[in-house]
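Example record for the data management plan.
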Amino acid sequence: MGLLSRLFGGRPRQPRLSINDPVLGAVVPGSDVDWWTATVVIDGKPIEFDIGGGVEPHPALLARARELASSFEPFAREVRELLEAKARECADLPPEVAAEFRSLRIRSVSHFRPDRPRDGMVGFHETESGAVLWRCDVKDGHPVNLGGDT
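Corresponding structural encoding:
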C-alpha cells in the first residue's frame, strides 16, 4: 500500500451496480453518483423515486422513498388538491391554463437532503403543449409551490 493510500484510506468506494430493495425493487445509480433511482409501478403507472446518496442511497432518504411507495395515495391526493387549487386560481386566464394544471400526472418524486428527508420535489409528465416542465416542491412531506421551467 502506498503512502497516499495509507493517508487517505485506500481507494474510494465505488457505487454498487444496483440494490434490490424489498419495497422499491431495483435501486440503481443515477446518471450522476449523487443519487439513485427506483421505478415503482403504483396503480398501473410507473413512478420514479430519485434518492440522494453517494456510493449507496442515504438511509434516511431510502426510508422516505419506501414510506411513500408503500402508501402513495394520500400523497398523490395532496398533489391533486394542490393542482386543483392552482387551477381554480386561474379563473381569469384562458381555460387551457387550468386544464393544463388538472392534466398533470406525477412522473417522479425526489428527495436529496439527508438533513431534511421529508423535503423534495415532484416532477410531472410533459403535457400536450410541452411548453413547460412542471414541478412542485415538497416541504415536510407536503406538496407546495407549483412551478415550471420553460
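Summary line stored alongside the record: The helical segments are 3-8, 59-70, 72-88, 95-103.
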